[in-house]
Amino acid sequence: MKGSNNKKSLQVLSKKQKRKKELLSWLWAILIVLILRQFFIQAFVIPSESMKPTLKIHDRLLANKIIYKIREPKRWEVIIFKYPEDPKKYFVKRLVGLGGESLIIKNGHVYIDGRVMKQPEDVPILLYYFNEIDGSYGVNEEVKIPSGTYYVLGDNSINSKDSRYWGFVPSKNLVGKALFIYWPPWRMGFIR
To answer: Which of 50, 157, 160, 163 is catalytic?
Structure first.
């Protein structure tokens, strides 16, 4: 009789220990996810066609949040930033102009300091930027990009409200570099 009671109490203790271990492992997993999300990686959903065909409506992507704390952003990277006119909103655009440069868009091309910019070979789509008549920044006349800011454009420039309309993105508004589409599965891949 004593043996069976001891066995039952060991089973109860064992079940409690298993629950405790499981709970602790869930807490650790949640803590790790929260740390990763806060400092390293964040998920975003694309709400518009402004970056089509690179990014499509409802694409879900991951952004590297730490990269711009380690190094400066590079031209042609797809970046995520807080919209300068409403920092509660996040925008995704391609970085084309760096602080200190002069920029104008004409004949579908971006000119930096008087020279047409050639897109890198690893960008898989042809970038052609429309000269919107109502654009205020870099469309009708050359603009100087202030130090500590960036000039961004949507890949689908005919359907994009970007730096041509509202100006420059301050470096403090940068959130991260768009890295990887993880949903839908058939579009999964690295962003160029």
So the answer is: 50
Phi and psi at 34, nearest 5°, equal -65, -40
- Is 4 a catalytic site residue? no
User: Each residue of 33-48: b (16+ CB within 10 Å) or e?
Assistant: eeeeeeeebbebebeb
Residue 70: exposure state from Cβ atoms within 10 A (0-12, 13-18, ≥19): exposed
Identify the active-site residue in 9, 18, 20, 93: 93
Rounded CA-CA distance 75/29 in Å is 36
Q: Which parts of the chain are beta strand (E)?
A: 41-45, 60-64, 78-82, 90-98, 102-106, 109-112, 115-116, 143-144, 149-153, 169-170, 174-183, 189-190
116, 90 contact by CB (below 8 A): no
Tens of pLDDT, residue by residue over 53-106, are: 899 999 999 999 999 999 999 999 999 999 999 999 999 999 999 999 999 998
CB within 8 Å of 68: residues ≥ 6 apart: 171, 174, 176, 177
pLDDT digits (tens, 9 = 90+) for 156-165: 888 889 999 9
Longest CA pairwise span in the chain (Å): 95
Q: pTM for the full model?
A: 0.80
**Catalytic residue check, 93:** yes
